[in-house]
Design brief:
Oligomer: heterodimer
CATH superfamily of the largest domain in chain A: Thiamin diphosphate (ThDP)-binding fold, Pyr/PP domains
CATH class of the largest domain in chain A: Alpha Beta
Number of domains of chain B: 1
Number of strands of chain A: 14
Number of strands of chain B: 6
CATH architecture of chain B: 3-Layer(aba) Sandwich
Distance between the termini of chain A: 47 Å
Number of domains of chain A: 2
Strand content of chain B: 15-25%
CATH class of chain B: Alpha Beta
Number of helices of chain A: 13
Radius of gyration of chain A: 20 Å
CATH architecture of the largest domain in chain A: 3-Layer(aba) Sandwich
């Protein structure tokens, strides 16, 4: 039976169902329902919820829990996510699986509480120091928040990598009907690398530093291979009305919901337009977009930012067609009519 | 039943229960096997100004969960009246809590239903259920789900304590009865 749940609560419940038993976080709107739900539910399932003294402390608690092989999560919002960046870099280097939720809010600075997608660069291009990427999943509905959260824990364990769920103030606060179907999940190897007590075996170290340059480069190359493997196998996207489309929007998360309505509006006017929705922000789903390059006469990225993902779209389109952009910022969302009008102005020459 | 997609705005100040009646509506939509979204407005608006939520109920998949132009809006205080009166679609309905909103310039192209729900609730002995009275008024005039489904949704969300269940059921009925006399 479907339940009416907020996105943040749905993520928390899905995490518990995925076997997450440790949550460390520092509450921040609009992600607060995640720690709130964990605080209520963790004890009953034998887990621990702990409110850290800061986001910096929270991410290093995640480090510790992940290093001993536990399924662990934290949830935050943009300013808190910024504070975690050093930790993310260290977690990547130590190859500690973990799941981080960023329910984006306004920025730069303290920002407002409304929805934005302005952390896109920070989420997909690194954020912390060094060459690394997190796998970044961008749900567009409360149901997808459930499905992708469960998947996130498997991906984290499978690749021993950071997995970030990128939501925003609308997805986090919105209620929609959700179901929690049982998931078979991936076949995962035992965590023989974990620092989980060395009785009867040699000790494991879960470290992030190698002071010999030769060793450092070897590690960088190995991580690079892992990034290539993820890029090759984990690109995900969903297409809407793309089969016969002449033009295409690219949008994820909340902006993809608004854009979907704009597609319906434009189609009612007889304009053949579709929506290409990245589900993985990193790896950016180049393959599906590339497959449409000969078909689409113009692309347009719709974002709740000043225009960040549009750079990745341009890299793939590579000058073969015009790439437009429309966005709102600071917690404002465009109406579908605005998106349709911007599309006409930029790609149809103001028809 | 009305059209396939209905957009609602429920507005008032924090404490008037506008987010709650939005939840009841969304729950009722879900119980009647429709697609629903419920989205609250948070922020500084919660303190003293207007609080509001957007609800979409649709027989088809819902794209945008935001409601810029509601088909149906409830405004429980004067600030919300000013904020939302111009947004209602032509032909739409605006329910106004006349206990808190004085006679103000309206619009010719929408239906405006003024009801003193605070007084009605006060007469029942509990002013807090003014929101539920307004829900009853709305259900009587512009229903998008069946009466018994909305009542069931109300009981699922507000009926955990028997005394509250009875009070909410009475408030809902009072709103429906009052609206019938308006028609």
């Amino acid at each position: 039976m479907a339940l009416l749940m907020k996105g943040n609560e749905a993520i928390a419940e899905a995490a518990i169902q995925a076997g997450c038993r440790l949550f460390y976080g520092y509450p921040i709107t609009p992600s607060t329902e995640i720690p709130e739900y964990m605080a209520k539910k963790m004890k009953a399932v034998g887990g621990t919820y702990l409110q850290a003294e800061s986001e910096i402390a929270a991410i290093y608690m995640v480090y510790g829990a992940g290093a001993v092989g536990e399924r662990v999560m934290t949830g935050t919002s943009s300013p808190g996510f910024s504070l975690m960046q050093e930790g993310l870099s260290f977690l990547f280097a130590a190859e500690i699986p973990c799941v981080i939720v960023d329910v984006m809010r306004g920025g730069p600075g303290l920002g407002g509480l409304g929805p934005t997608q302005a952390d896109y660069f920070q989420l997909t291009k690194g954020g912390g120091h060094g060459d690394y990427h997190a796998i970044v999943l961008a749900p567009f509905s409360v149901q997808e928040m459930v499905d992708l959260t469960k998947e996130a824990f498997d991906l984290a364990d499978y690749y021993r990598n950071l997995v970030i769920i990128a939501a925003d103030g609308i997805l986090g606060q919105m209620m929609e009907p959700v179901e929690f179907p049982p998931v078979a999940g991936r076949k995962l190897e035992p965590k023989t690398w974990a620092a989980s007590g060395a009785e009867g075996r040699p000790k494991n170290n879960v470290l992030s530093y190698y002071l010999t340059p030769e060793l450092g480069e070897a590690e960088n190359l190995r991580w690079g291979e892992k990034m290539s493997r993820i890029k090759e196998t984990e690109q995900r996207f969903v297409e809407y009305e793309m089969e016969d489309a002449d033009y295409a929007f690219v949008a994820f998360g909340t902006s993809s919901r608004i854009t979907e309505t704009a597609v319906d509006m434009l189609r009612e006017e007889g304009i053949k337009v579709g929506l290409y929705r990245p589900v993985t922000l990193w790896p950016f789903p180049e393959k599906g977009l590339t497959a449409r390059l000969n078909q689409i006469k113009g692309w347009m990225s719709i974002e709740l930012s000043a225009g960040q993902m549009v750079d990745d779209v341009k890299l793939v389109v590579n000058g073969k067609a015009p790439v437009g952009f429309y966005g709102r910022q600071g917690g404002m969302t465009p109406e579908p009519e605005e998106v349709a009008a911007a599309f006409k102005a930029q790609l149809l020459g103001g028809e | 039943m009305s059209s396939a997609l209905t957009k609602y705005k429920f507005a008032g100040f924090g404490g008037q229960g506008v987010l709650f009646i939005g939840k009841v509506m969304a729950q009722a939509g879900m119980l009647s096997k429709q697609q629903v979204t419920w989205f609250p407005a948070y922020g500084p608006e919660m303190r003293g100004g207007t609080a509001h939520c957007s609800v979409v109920i649709s027989t088809k998949r819902i794209g945008s969960p935001t409601v810029g132009k509601p088909d149906i809006a409830i405004v429980m205080n004067e600030a919300s009246y000013h904020k939302f009166i111009d947004s209602v679609v032509p032909g739409g309905t605006l329910y106004v809590n006349s206990s808190m909103v004085p006679e103000l310039p309206g619009r010719e192209d929408i239906r405006i239903v003024r009801v003193s729900v605070n007084e009605i609730a006060h007469e029942m002995g509990e002013e807090k259920v003014a929101n539920i009275v307004m829900l009853g008024v709305m259900q009587a005039i512009t229903p998008t789900v069946a009466d018994d489904v909305l009542e069931k949704a109300l009981m699922e969300l507000a009926g955990k304590k028997p005394e509250l269940a009875a009070l909410n059921a009475r408030a809902f009925k009072a709103g429906q009865e009052y609206a019938k006399n308006l028609c």
